[in-house]
From TrEMBL:
SUPFAM superfamilies: Metallo-dependent phosphatases. GO terms for biological process: lipid A biosynthetic process. This is Membrane protein. One of its GO terms (molecular function) is UDP-2,3-diacylglucosamine hydrolase activity. The keyword Kinase does not apply. It comes from Streptomyces griseus subsp. griseus (strain JCM 4626 / CBS 651.72 / NBRC 13350 / KCC S-0626 / ISP 5235). Pfam families: Metallophos.
Length: 547
């Protein structure tokens, strides 16, 4: 009487264990039923933990690939509109992108890039042509220029709305059509279209949440001088035709800075006639092409003073001194501090130039409407004399410079800009001066120090010097134009100019504003950017140095 219920209970336990662990044989189980085979149900064989979950993941991945590819094809096919923006005819398109942002293409001159948003979509605006009728209307009625910014804003907003509607249709249609081709089931195709619409909506929300309207204050313009490659040639011809290369590189800078002014109709910071323009260069390292670049920038930006934070030479020897002679003809006052590759011989030679102010041991000078103080580097690298790049020696030199700056403050002649070659020296001036410039690292750094001083480290204006040919890739050429307010003598904005390096003909100009200026809610005053013949600013004749 007790045995039968016990056997039934044991059978139930064995059956439950069999369900949990899977069949151990292909025979019949204790209940007399044949277990389903893995081939029919997709169940896992003993020890296989991935069988039941592998196919759903593959199906989901396949669906995602179909949706993305279909949406992209839809955008390519019909996801663009042709719309007027001010006096220009443009094509506006949404493109898949890992970084987002907006790009305005002015073919074949170059492109203007804005860090406007972070989303997997980028807005491309291709400027096709300048409409002659709308342009003539602006010429006939100059008062319309004052409303041009509002007109451009309205046109862009209207075009963006139309582009959003068309992009939705393009994305859904493309994903649905490709889903129908791949799966041949209407339900799956509609699911692909719905998922594409969801992804587009999520991207739109991401773009809206990260929208940065102040990105127009910091545009980046890149351009390519189409004639330079044919005139300069490959790297081998640079050796034999270096003079041509220097001239074309300077011409490239000239054209790019003009294009930066001519192609941008955005409300960017633009200096007024009272702005003091400072050109910061560093680490030329005996590259003669640097003088052509500097001369071009002096002319285009109408520079008031050039600041060189050292390492103009390589070994500081007397035979190298002739390399410095073009400084006489750059057309602007030149402020210089000694770098670790510059010797006392170099320093003594430059002191003979009428337009050069050599700063050392915290000495200060009034030049270009600014008071600038600086010190030479604590070491001289080529002959291994002195501390040789010792960080503590650089810091001690910085402390002496900071002490000199405090003395200037107490004397009623506060310094506007301090200059030191080594950033370790420059950091010690924190709290004693609004702005300190340095070099040495061959890369740019912009940093607000703890006590309020802004540290700006410039890259190599000589592209690392002629030794750069030993590197696997050419080192880029760097220089910056600083815009200083004439009344407060504080930094208002700066342009970073970057060239592709030895043998390359690409150029890039990007505008930056200090954080405190970006936080201002008020509009930025619209006056001309880098000087061009149409800017209305002064344009004195300045000679270009000979090679």
């Amino acid at each position: 009487m007790v045995r039968v219920p016990f056997r039934a209970a044991a059978d139930r336990v064995r059956h439950r264990i069999s369900q949990l662990t899977g069949p151990k044989s292909r025979g019949r189980d204790t209940a007399g039923a044949r277990p389903a085979t893995p081939a029919r149900t997709g169940a896992a064989t003993p020890g296989d933990l991935t069988g039941p979950v592998r196919r759903p993941y593959l199906r989901a991945l396949g669906m995602f690939a179909v949706v993305v590819l279909g949406a992209w094809l839809g955008l390519l096919a019909v996801g663009s509109i042709r719309t007027p923006v001010g006096p220009m005819d443009t094509n506006m398109t949404l493109r898949p992108s890992l970084t987002g942002g907006s790009k305005i293409n002015v073919s074949p001159l170059g492109a203007l890039e804005l860090d406007s948003h972070s989303a997997p979509l980028r807005l491309d605006v291709d400027v096709d042509r300048l409409d002659p009728e709308r342009s003539q209307a602006l010429v006939d009625r100059p008062e319309r220029f004052s409303n041009l910014q509002d007109e451009v804003t309205r046109d862009v907003a209207a075009g963006t709305r139309e582009l959003a509607v068309r992009s939705c249709v393009a994305v859904v249609s493309g994903a649905t059509a490709l889903g129908l081709v791949v799966y041949r089931r209407p339900r799956r195709a509609l699911a692909a279209g719905g998922l594409a619409l969801t992804l587009l909506a999520a991207s739109a929300v991401s773009a809206y949440a990260t929208w940065n309207p102040k990105s127009v204050l910091e545009p980046k313009f890149s351009g390519l001088l189409s004639s330079a490659p044919s005139l300069v040639g490959d790297a081998r011809s640079i050796v034999t035709e270096f003079d041509i290369y220097q001239q074309e590189l300077a011409r490239l800078v000239t054209n790019v800075t003009k294009l930066y002014d001519a192609t941008s109709t955005l409300p960017v910071y633009q200096p007024d006639p009272g702005t003091i323009r400072v050109l910061h260069v560093s680490d030329i390292h005996l590259n003669p092409a640097a003088w052509h670049i500097i001369a071009s920038l002096v002319e285009q930006y109408e520079i008031d003073v050039i600041v060189d934070s050292g390492d103009t030479m390589d070994h500081g020897s007397a035979p190298e001194n002739g390399f410095l002679d073009p400084i006489r003809d750059l057309g602007a006052p030149y402020v210089w501090v000694r770098g670790n590759h510059d010797s006392p011989i170099t320093q003594a030679y430059l002191k003979k130039f009428e337009n050069v102010s050599v700063l050392d041991d915290g000495g200060a000078v009034n030049v270009g409407g600014l008071r600038i103080a600086g010190t030479g580097d604590a070491s001289f690298t080529p002959d291994r004399t002195g501390p040789g790049g010792n960080k503590e020696a650089a810091r001690l030199e910085g402390m002496r410079l900071a002490s000199a700056l405090r003395d200037q403050e107490r004397a009623g002649t506060p310094v506007d800009i301090a200059v030191a070659h080594d950033p370790n020296t420059a950091r010690e001036t924190d709290g004693t001066v609004p702005l300190v410039l340095s070099g040495h690292l061959h890369r740019r750094i912009n940093e607000q120090l703890k006590l309020g001083t802004r540290l700006k480290v410039e890259g190599s204006t000589g592209g690392g010097g002629l030794r750069a040919v030993q590197n696997e890739k050419p080192e880029k050429v760097h220089a910056s134009v600083l815009y200083m307010d004439r009344s407060t003598r504080r930094l208002q904005a700066w342009d970073e100019i970057t060239l592709g390096g030895l043998g390359l003909t690409t150029a890039e100009v990007s505008r930056h504003l200090p954080e405190e200026n970006l936080k201002k809610d008020g509009p930025v005053s619209p006056t001309p950017s880098p000087s061009s013949p149409t800017s209305g600013a002064r344009s004195p004749e300045r000679p270009t140095p000979s090679p």
